[in-house]
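Help: why these numbers?

___
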Amino acid sequence: MSRTDEVVDGIKRMILDGVFRPGDRLPVEKELAESLGVSRGSLREGVSALSILGIVNTRQGDGTYVTNLDTTRLLAPMGFVVDLQGQGDARHIHTVRRLLECEAARQAAVTITEEALGQARELLDEAARVVRGARQDHERLIEIDIAFHRVIATHTGNPVLVGLIEAFAGRTVRGRLWRSLHETGADQRTHDEHEAIWRALAARDPERAGIRMASHLIGVEESLYAAPEDGERISGPGAD
């Protein structure tokens, strides 16, 4: 193990043990380096790595602080793994994403608030207006799409589930864009599928919400698998 890795593991262990808590300022460089048994150079490299991971934040002239350790931010680097895996057999990515999204729909059917249902309703109403428009705004439909799924994930009350679903967003956007641009009627189908999911959520029916989400995502997957090879390379796996 390199000295930099020792710094990373050492500080992470201190956080796990409660030595440092979210928002705490780390000791000055000399003191922390001595406590970890490393040089200041190795300490700086380790702190830099922790900063990239979203674990600490260095403020110019003020010191280094433990972040709020937001789960979504900490899981964000997984998005690169998703993109990397998607360059090969994307079915693995599809399978995991479907499991996550279907579970989110089931949980949200129980825990989602009336206010959140109203937010989702407003998104779908706007999507309906865009779909009916003379000139469809695909980019706006994608934004609405992402926001709709985010409302569902957020209201599961499970921050880990939210973070994992967010990690799939990059390729999701590209897949959704390919579908809207290349498939006749894809925007309307996506909207209808979202409506079915919303009705299941509003009815507080976990099983139906999970089934509707699964049907939606399987349809998207089938569309992408049927796409020309070049189209798949552009879109990647997943779509909302």
